[in-house]
Each structure stands twice: as structure tokens, then as C-alpha cells.
Amino acid sequence: MTEPVRRFEPLWQLALRRLALLPILLLLVSVIIFVLLHVGRGDPAMDYLRLSGITPTDQALMEARHRLGLDLPLVQQYGRWLWGALHLDFGTSFISGEPVLAMLLDYLPATLSLVAVALVVTAIFSVALGLLAGSYPDRWPDHLVRFIAFLGVSMPNFWLGFLMVLLFSVWLEWLPPMGYGGPLHFVMPAMAISLMTISINARMLRTSLLEARAQRHVHYARLRGLSSGRQLRAHVLPHALLPLLTASGMAIGELIGGAFVIENIFAWPGVGRLAVEAIHNRDFPVLQCFTLLMTLVYVLANLGVDVVHAWLDPRIRRHRVAPSGDMT
């Protein structure tokens, strides 16, 4: 019997295979968030009347529920929403009356820019601190990085944000305390979001560096007389960075989640701030579209990381193929 051979899946095929699962994932997320929103406590019609300055009489509540479509059975409400979503119509805000998708797309660039800056900061400091700790294991640079990592994973990002505002804005007056504008406005929010991820990644890179240096091929390179710098660049660092690249997919989700809290501290005009207001006002259409949009951003970001990882490490794309050409 002929044994199956191994072939490498093209990168475009890997991406298409992952993207094929995206509609199913979005559908499941939409069902879950729709049910959770409607079985929770509170009445959106009451909040609608409160914000409109209307006395919440029985007649006013009935008219508000009819206006918002909340008097229909739950299945019919979801069916109407799903039909609109398939045509990129995610409804209108209960509070402002504006199209939900347009609102979120107006706020999304501010959040994505903050997350992008935080991701760059995370990559730079993670590699720098990881290399420092891995190059001097159990010496004072390593102990310093461990201390920084301990603080990073122990301190909540919102508390760090308050401390940074107190230090750099109130006492030293170096940085603007809040708002969205020039490059200086990014410094404190980006650092507050990324410190925990930097701490985790730096420790991970340190461990990967020590494991890579213990590999046999690195030992042979050392015996051949390669300098420490060439050993690091050619044999150690490429192997040690692969786990860090994989972890960056999860880091994107952590940075997005952290941005929602930090945006409210620094008055950042992003979707996180909009979502908090929607939660307070029980603005269901905004929350429904917001959840789907963040799911889409997170999945696409992780897909990009997976494609880069598969490009750097082709073993991920290796499949067993039967002699006839059928995948097994």
C-alpha cells in the first residue's frame, strides 16, 4: 500500500478556508448577543422615554415599544434584524435615530488607530525587554525585566491610566490628559493598554530565547566560530519569535478589549466609548452591530497573523495527501 505524501497548502487556500467559516461564526455571535440583550433586565422603551424627556405612562411605553419594534415576538424581531443585516442595514439607534453602521464606522478609525499604535508599542518593547532578559539570564537585567513584568500583569490598565494622567499631565505637564489629536495624545493610552501584553510577551520571548540557545544546531554554530550576534540573528531569534507571533493574535483581542476601558478614561472618541454609552442606555441595535463589528475585526486580525505564521513556518500548511490526490 502506497503511503500518503505530504504537500503544502497554498497561503491563499489557507486564508479562504478560514474565511469560509466567518459567516457561520458571525451568525452564531449575532444569535447569542441578540438573546442576551433581550433576556436581560431593564426596558429599552423606558430609557428611550427618559432620554426623550417624556413621562413614562402606560400609553407612552406602549407607543415607544411599537416605535422601537419591541412589541413583536423575539423570533420575529431577530428575523427582521437579520434580513436587514444581510443588506448591511443594522437598524437605527434607539436614542439618536441615526443608522447604526454609519455611527460605528465614524468612531471606528479612532479605536483602530489607538490599537495599531498600541500593537507597535507592544512589539517594540516586548522584543527589547525579552532580548534584554534572555541575553543576561539570572543577572540584574533579567531581574529588572521580571520586576517590570510583575508590575505589568498586576496593575489594571485603568488604574495605570489614572496614575499616568496624575504623573505626566498633572505633575509634570508633559502630555495632554485626554482627547484625540496629535501624536502626544497616543502616548499614555497606548502604554496603558499595552503594558500587560508587553509583560507577558517579554517573559515568553525570554523563555523562547533560552530554549533556542539550547538547541543542537545553535551549539554547532557556536563551535564553528560564529559570533554571538550572527548566532542570534540567524539561528536563535527566528526560532524564538514564532511563539511570540502566535501570541500576537490573542494580544490583538486583549488590546481591543483594553481600549474600551481606556477610551473612557482618556475621553478617546472610539467605539468603546460609544459601546459604554449604548450599554447604559440599552441601545440594542448599537450593541448588536458593535459586537459583530468587533468580532469581524478580531477574526480578520487573527487570520492575518496566522497567514504570516504559515508563511514563516511552512510546516503549518503541511497536509497528508493520498496518492490519488484526495486529502486525508
Task: Write up what this structure looks like.
The protein is mostly helical and 328 residues long. The chain has 13 helices and two strands, in the order βαααααααααααααβ. α3 (44-52) packs across α4 (58-68) and α6 packs across α9.
Total helical elements: 13
Number-wise, the strands total 2
Rg (C-alpha, Å): 25 Å
Coarse structural class: mainly alpha
What is the N-to-C order of secondary-structure elements (H for helix, E for strand)? EHHHHHHHHHHHHHE
Characterize the largest beta sheet: strand count, sense, and whether it forms a barrel.
2 strands, antiparallel
Strand content: under 5%
What is the share of helical residues?
A: over 70%
The average pLDDT value, as a whole number, equals 83
Give the end-to-end Cα distance, rounded to a whole number of Å. 15 Å
- Choose one word for the global shape: flat
* Quaternary: single chain
Low-pLDDT ranges: 324-328
Order of strands in the sheet with the most strands?
Answer: 1-2
